[in-house]
Every structure is written in structure tokens, then in C-alpha cells.
Amino acid sequence: AAFCDALHDAVEGRLGEITETSQRARYPLRSIHAERYISSHAALVGDAAHQIHPLAGQGVNLGFRDVGALIDMVASQLERGRPISNEQGLRAYERTRRGDNLLMQKSMEGFNHLFSNDNSLLKLLRNSGLAATQRLPLIKEGFMQHALGTSGEIPSLCKRAL
């Protein structure tokens, strides 16, 4: 009953009265990244290739870009009359996606460390950095474009969704 009341208060009653919940579970928030995205005749995409801290909800966006890049690679191989399992094409997919995914993963780990730390020096750096970003529109725009996935090499399928 105490948990139901706390949950009701946390969502400000928007879910109505909460009378029952199932057994609660918890899962560790962790980042993992595959050493290789490809092997003979196979490619990893999305959470099979990488998992990032859900701090900014970027995991699904990275997965969409992985799928889009893989579709682009498959289309390119078919246009050239090559098998879709062509090693050169698979390596190109891996090169295209690995850097973007690692950059986002490390960025989220950095943000998590900055915002979950009580160290006064880190707080000062964080607040100064945020204030500077607000005053420098080009930097702010760059961060936003990266977070939205609208910078760098954008798969054609993802471009259509923009």
C-alpha cells in the first residue's frame, strides 16, 4: 500500500487510484558495446551492438540509424550486383555506425557522471559549461543536431523521416 501511495504521489494522481502492483524488479543501467558489429554474413544493429545509459533516450535513435545504415549498405550492394553479405559492405556499415555509437555512448556516460556527482568542482564546471552553451548558439546547435541524429552521415531512410 505504501508503494501504491508513493507512486500515486509521484505521478501527481494522473493515473488515477493505484490499488495493486506486481512484484517490483530492478535492472542495472549499464553501457555495453560490441567489439565487432559484423561477422561472416551477419551484422549487429541496435541493442545487439550497443546499449547506452538511457539518460537522454538515445538508444532507440541509434538503433534506427543502425538499421538505416544497414539498409543503405544492402541497397548499395544490390545495385552493384554484389551479395549483401559482401565483407567490404559489412565493414563499411561497421565503420559508419561504430564511431557515432561510441561517441553517443561516451557522451551519455560523461553527462551521467557530471549530473550525478556532488563534487563541487564538477558542479561548477557543469554549470559553467551549460551557461556557455546557452550563450553560444553554434555550439548549442551542434549538440542538438548530434542528439537528434541530424549531423554527420545520415542514412537515407532516416533522412526521409526528418
UniProtKB/TrEMBL annotation:
Residues 20-98 form the FAD-binding domain. One of its GO terms (cellular component) is ubiquinone biosynthesis complex. It holds the Pfam family FAD_binding_3. PROSITE patterns: UBIH. InterPro entries: FAD-bd, FAD/NAD-bd_sf, Ubi_Hdrlase_CS, UbiH/COQ6_monooxygenase. GO terms for molecular function: FAD binding; monooxygenase activity; oxidoreductase activity, acting on paired donors, with incorporation or reduction of molecular oxygen. One of its GO terms (biological process) is ubiquinone biosynthetic process. Keywords: FAD, Flavoprotein, Monooxygenase, Oxidoreductase. Its cofactor is FAD. Pathway: Cofactor biosynthesis; ubiquinone biosynthesis. Component of the Ubi complex metabolon, which regroups five ubiquinone biosynthesis proteins (UbiE, UbiF, UbiG, UbiH and UbiI) and two accessory factors (UbiK and the lipid-binding protein UbiJ). Belongs to the UbiH/COQ6 family. This is FAD-binding domain-containing protein. It comes from Solemya elarraichensis gill symbiont.
